[in-house]
Amino acid sequence: MRRMTFRRVLWVCTLQAVVLLAVVVVALKLGAVPISVTDLVYSLGRVAIGHDSQLPSQFQVIVFGLRLPRIILAIFVGAALSVAGAGYQALLRNPLADPYVLGVSGGAALGAICSLIFAPEIPLVTPAAAFVGATLTITAVYFLGRRQGQLDGSTLLLGGVIVASFLQAVIMFLMTTLAGRELRGTSFWLMGDLSTPSPEEIGWVFAVGLAVSIGAIYSTSADLNLMLGGENEAIHLGVNVKRVKLVVYVAASVLTGLAVSVSGAIGYVGLLVPHALRWLVGSDYRILIPASALGGAIVVVVADTLARTIAAPTEFPVGAMTAMAGAPVFIYLLRRRMR
């Protein structure tokens, strides 16, 4: 494990923040209506000094009404999924673990589909129902994963796979009851959709939940480092392993539930980003967690930009873009791990 200092954490996070800023500028520029970098920088400068009323109305709608809220949502979702992936990989001590492996995304998707079937006219019911579904799934898998009064990683993983399979079957059954237009929209949402930014109230809830959950996982980073050598060794060093597991499990599941409730299932982000960053910055969770948050934000913004520009004005699901890039890498990692 590389030596971790505050200067190194600051350097890594600053470099990632610069890359994220560059990606955001490119994402604002690209689209069905391209905008030059000069006009974009000039307009952002006017907004920064409070002269946004002088901007053309079309420019305001495209950049600040459509693209910027979508990019901000992509940043939040990417950070949530990536940190959740790092948390699950630490919890299960398996670098191939993923936020969706415990069925949380299936529970959120089931809640969203139920809201579309039984209460489609109620505003904000879909993200709320998705989060409730994720919460219920978290609770069910948690009790399935307990063995002799403690949270067992192998049992938790097996329980998650079983619950995810059951939920997927229920989702397929319910989707047959949807009408043609609703079926297409739901199918698109299940593959990852950032085209409809959430209302401001949902955005504030997401931001607060994101900050609290990431902070909770980061507060256990020193204990997670000690647990890398084994739970028995960590217990001998004074780590409350049971508390750490519970905190990481709940916080990572909340992050996944929040992300799925507003964007659908965007897979492989929580698997690939923490794994790649372990090669770059090491396995110290005191730097891996903030690096994963910024790295996940970069990946999802890039994926969303490609999804809406490759075949503009046609748009692809964001989850399809991450899956096309992530599936081959996952197969490589799996074969490497088997060897």
The CATH architecture can be named as Orthogonal Bundle
Write down the CATH class. Answer: Mainly Alpha
CATH fold category name: ABC transporter involved in vitamin B12 uptake, BtuC
* Mean pLDDT rating: 82
Tell me the β content.
under 5%
Which superfamily, in CATH terms, is the homologous superfamily? ABC transporter involved in vitamin B12 uptake, BtuC
**How many helical elements?**
14
Q: SS-based structural class? A: mainly alpha
Query: What's the helical proportion of residues?
Result: over 70%
Shape: globular
Radius of gyration: 20 Å
Low-confidence stretches: none
**Total count of domains:** 1
Order of helices and strands: HHHHHEEHHHHHHHHH
The count of strands amounts to 2
Which strand order do you get reading across the main beta sheet?
A: 1-2
The biggest beta sheet is recorded as: 2 strands, antiparallel
Distance from first to last alpha carbon: 23 Å
Put the structure in a nutshell:
The protein is mostly helical and 339 residues long. The protein has 14 helices and two strands, in the order H-H-H-H-H-E-E-H-H-H-H-H-H-H-H-H. The chain has a two-stranded antiparallel ribbon with strand order 1-2.
Task: Give the arrangement of secondary structure elements.
Elements (H helix, E strand, L loop, with lengths): L5 H24 L7 H12 L8 H36 L11 H15 L6 H20 L1 E2 L2 E2 L1 H23 L4 H11 L9 H20 L1 H7 L3 H6 L4 H23 L5 H13 L3 H25 L8 H21 L1
Antiparallel strand pairs: 1-2
